[in-house]
Amino acid sequence: MSSSNLARIRKAVRYDVRNLVYPFLHPRYLLQGIFLFNGNRILRHPSARLIKDGGRLQFGCFWDVWKGKGGIVLHEGACLRIKGNVVIGDGVIIEVHAGATLEIGAETFINPNARVIALESIRIGAECAVAWDVQIMDGDRHFFLDANGSPEKNTAPIEIGDHVWIGARSLILKGTRVEDDAVIGAGSVVSGRVAAGTVVAGNPAVALREGVRWTK
Length: 216
Ligand SMILES: CC(C)(COP(=O)(O)OP(=O)(O)OC[C@H]1O[C@@H](n2cnc3c(N)ncnc32)[C@H](O)[C@@H]1OP(=O)(O)O)[C@@H](O)C(=O)NCCC(=O)NCCS
Fold this sequence. Notes:
mainly beta; UDP N-Acetylglucosamine Acyltransferase, domain 1; 21 strands
């Protein structure tokens, strides 16, 4: 096995010791340069063909150590601050990356399978309702390069006020500021500012109603 393949295995092991074993459970694939991590399998009908023209196929990567379950990952120097009673649903994934902060206010709930990724700073206020499958991320993860080939800044803080309702499957992007009592319609893509008491929806989210009041 090449040293770069060994390095890949080592990297996966760092996230989950069981990954040391998984690829060896499928020696036939391993010999073909196919690495199955995290218990992922290939179900192949005897008549089906799997052709790999050189290189390496890695399946089950990007350290989903949770295997479909939720979890909280706090990286070096990260800070997660929970202010009072907070309910987080099954399957929610929270990542606070190195040096980043995430704050969640009292009486806020986050429904199952939502994902909150803090690379710089995310604040979710008190009494908010975050629906199923919502994604809140204050960075893009990949970079644009400037004229000198240096990566541009790709994070900006997210501020979500108090008593904000974020509808199912919405996506809250970096730099978003949602003011108190606002409502985000289901499936919306939000960036920029959402004024207090405003209902926005769509992609990109636009205002539907203003001056609303809502209750859980
Ligand atoms: C945002 C929402 C609350 C607005 O409800 P409403 O004020 O009763 O709005 P209406 O249903 O009267 O729709 C008004 C208009 O906005 C549009 N609209 C409403 N929600 C929308 C959405 N999520 N995306 C795009 N357009 C939307 C409607 O198509 C309608 O357009 P039209 O006037 O051209 O016909 C609601 O549509 C919604 O998204 N609910 C989902 C909430 C949710 O995810 N709950 C999970 C529990 S935590």
